[in-house]
Amino acid sequence: MILKAISIDDEPRAHNVIEHYAAKIEQLDLVETFTSPLKAASFLKANQIDVLFLDINMPDMDGMSLLKTLKDPPAVIFTTAYEEYAVESYDHEAAGYLLKPIEFPKFYKAVMRVLEQKHHPSSTLPKKGDSSSSLLLKSGTKLLRFDPDNIRYIEASGNYAELTLEDETVLVDHTLSELMEQYIPSNFLRIHRSYS
After folding, report:
1. What residues does 135 pair with on adjacent strands?
2. Which of 85, 159, 163, 183 has the smallest number of CB atoms closer than 10 Å to its CB?
């Protein structure tokens, strides 16, 4: 199977890197590159694409906003210099989140993940409400992945939340309300803070 891909980035140098890496992978065909998100949006409406390499901070329209305009978006691999959007990328079920300067092994792994999903459509990325899905949450400068089944309970701690796992407690940069609304599966039970 050959994956058809396009790249959207306002920096031509970023396209050079993606073109160079894409040429190394037989299963990947980079058919077009765009510096304008608006031109890319028109292309996507008229053409079927499997993979979208997408920058986030761009003039006219950022990558996240562009995604929201697409009815049936292809698999998305974010290519960005900003790590603070990684948690939001989870909402878009991104196949990858590559920080610039992009390393080839991570690029390859993200492409192989898309290829695996095409071969096995049932192995989709995690969604809210799926108790078997993992959670990608920010803790300080790190992005940590948690298995909901390993979380014993979550406690509010001001503008943060403490996740108590089987063998440790981790402070994450999310409020309890935010976690409950956006990330935590529906089978979690919310209890009053006076419970002990």
Report:
1. 146
2. 159
